[in-house]
Design a protein that fits this description.
The protein is an alpha/beta fold. It has one domain: Rossmann fold, CATH 3.40.50. Helices cover 41% and strands 20% of the residues. 29% of the residues are buried. The model has no long low-confidence stretch (mean pLDDT 92).
Amino acid sequence: MSRVILITGPARSGKSEWAEYLAIESGKPVIYIATATENFRDQEWQQRIQKHKERRPEDWVTLNIPVKLTAALTDAKPNTCILVDSLGTWVANFIGQDDLSWETTLGELLEAIPLVEADLLFVAEETGWGVIPAYPMGRTFRDRLSALIRQLGSVCETVYLVTGGHVLNLSVLGFPLPPAKS
């Protein structure tokens, strides 16, 4: 039986580090799916990517998959651990999609997850705890990522919140909301 785990929290909270720890603890071969694309003109972005690369054990396989996440998960081999970092970047990669196309993309991902025979670790950023974005694209991003996190959280075995340098197991501390009404 595969496990599906969601690790969420604010920027720079340690989400990725906790997911990496869980991947190592799984004892299974790890496939790290990076959803970000490199931009060599943005040195600060490259430094962030490099920090993540340096933390990964050498025996992990890294796949750069900015868009075709559902296909990559469907192709996952049993008895492996897939770490997806991050869903926020993956959502941003689809920001130009109209709402109907996005709903199709999201639905395909959520339908595929229960069929995957590998352990799945998803890292996602919480964006709705601050100021409402002043621009439509920012609100679209926030709303899409928040909806994904809520829907994914309802199908996960465990949901962790990493904040303030601490890890909270929300699956033990709380209980899931009923499904959102359309």
